[in-house]
Amino acid sequence: MTLLIGLLGCGTVGSGVVELVERRADKIAQMTGLRPSIAKILVRNKEKARPSSIDPAKLTTDPKDILDDPKISLVIETIGGIEPAREFILAALKAGKHVVTANKDLIALHGPEILETAERNQVDILYEAAVGGAIPLVRPLKESLASSDITDLKGIINGTTNYILSKMTDAGLSFDEALSEAQRLGYAESDPSSDVDGLDAARKLAILSSIAFASIVELSDVRVQGIRNVTAADVRFADQLGYVIKLLAVGKDRDGRLSLEVRPSLVPKSHPLAHVSESYNALYVRGDAAGDLMFFGQGAGSMPTASAVVGDVIEALRNIQLGVSGHSQNLIGTQKTAEASKDLTPYYMRLSAEDQPGVFAEIAKVFGETEVSMSNVLQTPTRLGHADIVVVTHNASAQHMDITVKRLQELRHVSVIHTVMPVES
Ligand SMILES: NC(=O)C1=CN([C@@H]2O[C@H](COP(=O)(O)OP(=O)(O)OC[C@H]3O[C@@H](n4cnc5c(N)ncnc54)[C@H](OP(=O)(O)O)[C@@H]3O)[C@@H](O)[C@H]2O)C=CC1
Ligand SMILES: N[C@@H](CC=O)C(=O)O
User: What is the pTM of this model?
Assistant: First the structure.
C-alpha cells in the first residue's frame, strides 16, 4: 500500500529527502508494508532551479494543497525558522497527519506546544534530524539510554562552526572564507549568525538536555557564546600551547540542578573531540548505568540530514502499521533549576597591552589579587609598542575570571581583552 507524504520546503534538506525516499521506497515498503511516496512539495518559488530528482509537477506554493489533502497522511517539514513552520506543523497535527521535522528552532522554542498537540491528536511528531544531522541522538537518549540517569552531555553539535574552526586551523582560511564555503556546502542556516553566534548549538543543547535530563528546558537556560571573537591569532596561540579551538556544548545535571553552556573552548590535541573536524559532530554522554558513550558522524548537509529525516519517516510508518502512533512524544512534566556551572576549570585569555616595562607586572598583580593563578604565559609583539599577551590559568571559577577581566579592563596599559575561553583537560 502507498502512503502519501507532503513535503514542506525543498532546499538543502528537502531535496535530499526527495532523493532518499525515492531511492529507498522499495526497501521501506519491504520493512514496513507501506510504500512512501512524496505527492506534493511546498516551496516559496516554483521557478527556482532544482535538482533533476524534483518533479516540477509536484511543486506548489499553496500550503493547503498539502495540509487540506486528506489523502496525505504524513508531512515532512524542512522549511526552517518559526513561522510559518509552526503554523503548518500545528495544522498538520490537528488534521491527524504525522509530522517529521528537522527544525530545531521550533522544537527548542515551541516543543511542549507541538508535542502536546501531537499527543492530543494521536499522531507522531519526530525530530531526530533537528540535532546532529545523521547521528542518532534523540532516539538513543529517549529509548536506549532511558535506563540510566544521564549526568553529562558534552560535544560539538554545530557543523558550520566546526567547519569554520577546522578550516582556520588546518587550511589557514580566514573566518569569512570558511563561512562562505560552509554556506556553499549547505551546512549553514539561512541566517548564518545562528551558527556563528552559538544559537543553533544552544537550541540543539536545549533539545538534547530536555530529553537526557528529563526536564523542561527553556532556551534562555543555555548560556551562549559564539565564535565571532575567535581570530587567527587565537588559533595560532592555541596551536603553540598544544590545543585546538572547538565550539563545545556542555550540559550537566548535578542532583537536579542543570548547567547548560555553549562556548568556544581549547581542547588538547590528544583529546578525541580535537579530531572531530569539518562538518562532523560528536557528543559524549555519561549515564550512571551506561557509563561513557560517544556518538560521532556528519552533523549537517543534505544527505546526512535526509538520512535522519527518512529514518523518522520509517518509524512513523511502523507505528502506523502497529497502531501505536502518538506514543513517541515523551512529554516531560518537571522543570529543573538551571544555573551557572560552579565547576573549576583552567582558562585561556588573550589581551593586547602596551609593550613596556612594568605592564606585565601590573597584569600579574591583578591575577594575584583576584586569586586566579597563572600556569602559562605567551607574548608576541603586534603593532608598534604593543603586544598580544596570552595567559593560561590554573583551575579557576567563572566568577573569579569575570572579576579578573573587569579589573584588567581598568588598567591604563591594557587596550583590549580579546578572548576568554575555558580549557578542557
Ligand atoms: N542544512 C543542514 O545541514 C541542516 C538543516 N537542518 C534544518 O532543516 C531545515 C531546512 O534547512 P535547509 O534545507 O538547509 O534550508 P533551505 O533554506 O535550503 O531550504 C528551505 C526550503 O523551504 C522553502 N521555504 C522557506 N520559506 C517558505 C515559506 N514561507 N513557504 C514555503 N516554502 C518556504 C524554501 O523554498 P524555495 O526553495 O522556493 O526558496 C526552501 O525550499 C531548517 O530547520 C534547518 O535548521 C537540520 C539539520 C541540518
Ligand atoms: N546549521 C546547522 C545545520 C545542522 O543542524 C549546523 O551547521 O550544524
Answer: 0.96
Query: How far away, in angstroms, is 300 Cα from ligand 2 center?
Result: 5
Q: Domains in the chain and their CATH numbers? A: 2-133+303-322 (3.40.50.720), 138-298 (3.30.360.10), 347-422 (3.30.70.260)
| Own/partner pairs, 79-84, CB within 8 angstroms, 24+ separation | 79/8, 79/9, 79/42, 79/103, 80/9, 80/11, 80/105, 80/189, 80/190, 81/105, 81/106, 81/190, 82/106, 82/109, 82/110
Ligand 2 pocket residues where CB is under 6 Å: 133, 158-160, 187-189, 195, 200, 299-300
Q: Whose CA is nearest to atom 10 of ligand 1?
A: 78
> Active-site residues: which are they?
204
Complex confidence, ipTM:
0.99
Encode pLDDT of 89-100 as tens digits. Answer: 999 999 999 999
Residue pLDDT, tens place only, 197-230:
999 999 999 999 999 999 999 999 999 999 999 9
Cα of 192 vs centre of ligand 1, distance in Å, is 13
